[in-house]
Design a protein that fits this description.
Blueprint lengths: L1 E6 L29 E4 L1 E4 L4 E3 L14 E2 L3 H4 L4 E6 L5 E8 L5 E2 L9 E4 L2 E6 L7 E6 L18 E2 L11 E3 L2 E3 L8 E3 L2 E2 L9 H9 L4 E2 L2 E3 L2 E7 L5 E8 L5 E18 L1 E2 L2 E2 L5 E3 L5 E5 L2 H8 L12 E5 L5 E6 L13 E2 L4 E2 L17 H8 L6 E2 L3 H6 L9 E4 L6 H4 L4 H4 L2 E12 L2 E2 L6 E11 L2 E9 L17 H8 L3 E5 L4 E4 L5 H8 L2 E4 L3 H6 L14 E6 L5 H4 L3 E4 L2 E5 L9 E2 L1 H12 L2 E4 L3 E7 L34 E7 L7 E2 L38
Parallel strand pairs: 1-2, 3-17, 4-45, 19-45, 41-42
Antiparallel strand pairs: 1-10, 3-9, 4-5, 6-7, 6-11, 8-9, 11-13, 11-16, 12-23, 13-18, 14-15, 19-31, 20-21, 21-32, 22-30, 24-25, 26-27, 28-29, 32-33, 32-44, 34-35, 34-43, 36-37, 36-40, 38-39, 39-43, 40-41, 44-46
Amino acid sequence: MKKNLLYGSMAFGLLFASCSSEDLVVDDTTNTQGDQDYYVTMRISGDMTGTRAASSGNPDEGTTGDFDPGTADENKVSTAYFVFYDQSGNVVGDVVPVDLPTPETAPSPSGTVDVYYKSTVKISVRKGESKPTQVICYLNPVVPGGLNRSLSEIQTVSRENFRNGDRNFSMSNSVYYATVPGQSAPTPQIAVVIPEAQLYSSETAAKEAADRDECVSIYVERYASKIKFEATGIEPYKSANRIFSSTGGMEEKPVELTFVPLKWTLNAVANENYVIKSFRQESTDGMILPENYSYDGLNKIINVGANASKTGLNLDITQDAQGNITSITPTGNPLASNEEWKWNNPDYHRSYWGMSPAYFTAAYPEVSSDLADMAAEGKTINQTYWSYNDVTTSEVGKNVGTTHYFKETTVGAKALASTNPAAAVGSVIYVGKYEISLNGTALEEGTGFYAYGNGQVSVDGQQVDRPFIYFENKPGSVESTVNGGGSMLQRFFVQCINIVKYDDVAGEYVPFSYTNPADMEKLANVFQIDTISKDVKQKYDGDNATILKIQANARTLQLKSNLNPSDLEGIFILSDNGYKSITSNATSGNDELTYLEANVALMRMAGLAYYYTSGHAYFNIPVKHLGWYRAGNTQKDSPSINWNLVRVGDFGVVRNHSYSIVVDKVIGLASGIGNDNTPIVPPVTPDDFYMSYRVNILKWAVVPTQNVSL
């Protein structure tokens, strides 16, 4: 036989009513033994307001703009389900669907709730099951099936979407750290506790309690986060193109690059979201652990003092021989109370942090090529990185000036301590293309270009440090495809004085000359601008166990493939131990370099140019979370990000939070797109090292006077 359990009012949170003694169920046993109906009065009072990034980092109901009531579409509820649990966290009965009445609008004590519902809920409790003592509410679930998991499992259940089939926003209990009766320390409140005094033996009593608004609240929050992106104030980026004349000398022509915005989206976004906010601990190999963080443990990680170490988190981070992080332990002193980020607010029935599936990633990419390598090695990648074509030609891309919704995406100390935290955190990528003018003349739309080197360029009457701009070359020539412009290939040949020929007259090796058309033609038929192969990256530092990390649009001077031996005759490369010819053999002799060895030597001399395919480019904007605005953030007002000082909670996209990003001026040079189909991974920022120095000019060493008699 079965037992029926009825719940009284339902609001976007749930309010359980108190009751009179004659309405109470009298049953001192843990397990139900026979047919009996239970009724509980509830009101679902939902946490329907989104949170904006308060300037203080700690949203307050009395501050205008700290909370956003949301739109009617964002608050719409089409379906509701309850899952009930016993004291041990085991599911009692089946998932219970509920038909909701018309929502009501009313102020709440905290001021952070917009609407609520009241309704009566009935569930069936099987014979032998324990009494229900806890409840989770799901509104607009993506898939109702699979929600009847124990409390120990429910934090691991995930979904690919944050809206259901009706496209309404999915919601579930707001999870935050609260002090539960019988527990000394705050723990994550996942399911709302149902006091035994609020189990009713009659539906009438439950409804009467609902009419008196004597309810226990369940607050719910949306799975989705909301981002609005706006951008204005685009200014031309000014640099110069250098042309090396065959008659000698160099001419410098002004270049203007004007960014034309196309679309934007959230990059490095989590592939899935949890159906209930998670505070689970993560293992070093990317596994979600069964234990939740204690409040003190997580708070210590979030609110440690920053320093200038690589981690910037005052964390003791240990690694194995392969460089994998094996443990992360907070070691720094906690911040002063007036500098802490108050990421948990039980008075407002919410927390401002949580663990998305991206938290449980063992490794994060440093450059785009890492994604394929990680997949081949079987490493878990819990985030999606979009390509230029994804953003510009599919529904992934969003129009500038619009608001859209994304999966919760957060990362922790492990990601921030990685070699490329900029690629780990959720970021808005703002993609577009460049319109180019050379010496005041507009170039053809879709003209590709290279950014190479840095030097002083005259911009509006001032000398500023800028990369120079170069263009592609015609096949078999150093001549630029842009009329009157200088090519990148020619610039590489000017740079690579280690490419030499033997001068029979002088009896010595001399560089090929850019003033000699025959020299340039010979080199243009042998060398090309190319991507950097994995073999070259591994060979570059002489250690095949490591690989040089290079962003996807990097290019350098390399040998063409399928060359004839005659093509290489008369060409030598100055390497570490002399002038050497190039052999197509797999191994080289004492006076030879293999193709691989030659390509490494060429890359060392030429360096890297960064290619912009058809002028395509992007800006990467890490999404700042509430932690960034804490009083203790010393770089809060800085225009740039020092990743060595970033702490957990400074960046992230958290469920039921509203973000607004406004680009008020575009004055810098965007990152180039090397291949429109390659996922965009913001490249690792090279480490900067500083050295104090004093240069001492030695005195002349005096040799004794040499007296000579002749």
